[in-house]
Design goal:
The protein has 164 residues and is of the alpha/beta class. 32% of the residues lie in helices and 12% in strands. It contains 5 helices and 4 strands; from the N terminus they run αβαβαβαβα. The longest helix has 17 residues, at 2-18. The chain is globular. 23% of the residues are buried.
């Protein structure tokens, strides 16, 4: 009986040790093939959508926003990453600029000071505001803390309040 109890204790301990929860990760679904029955444009003939990847973004086209890019491409849009700071010249090529979950740096989220520093310089914010005022299209996405705080100054330029 003692031997059976000892074996059972070892099995239970091994099962508990190997079934510990792993930290969750957000990974792209590389098998997702969005169906677009009537694309807005012929393949590669649509407007250009740029996804900001210059501000330590949590979402990028080769990772967590891959399905977003795939969906737009299947609708005929040209989709490209934007890996440089905002300037007037390169934005002239973008019909829509998408900024999703920009960050001030690549530090761990729990190490950011409070309030979260802006992911964008004052000059970048002024250039983006001017671009939108002249007809540019901006989709600004910010999730929970610290991402909303990192986009707070940019959102405020458009009269939108984000909180950290």
């Amino acid at each position: 009986m003692i031997r059976l109890a000892s074996c059972l204790a070892v099995v239970v301990a091994a099962a508990a040790a190997t079934s510990a929860p792993l930290p969750g990760q957000q990974l792209p679904d590389t098998a997702f093939r969005p169906l677009v029955k009537r694309p807005a444009y012929a393949p590669g003939k649509g407007r250009t959508v740029c996804l900001d990847e210059a501000h330590h973004n949590f979402h990028t086209l080769d990772n967590r926003f891959r399905a977003f890019g795939d969906l737009l491409r299947r609708d005929g849009y040209i989709v490209k990453p934007s890996k440089r700071q905002f300037t007037a010249s390169y934005r002239a090529t973008c019909f829509v600029l998408v900024i999703s979950n920009a960050q001030p740096n690549n530090d761990e989220w729990n190490t950011y000071p409070s309030p979260t520093p802006s992911a964008f310089s004052d000059d970048e914010i002024a250039r983006l505001k001017k671009w939108v005022d002249r007809g540019g299209r901006l989709l600004l996405i910010a999730d929970h803390m610290p991402l909303a705080g990192a986009a707070q100054k940019l959102a405020a330029a458009f009269g939108v309040a984000f909180t950290d």
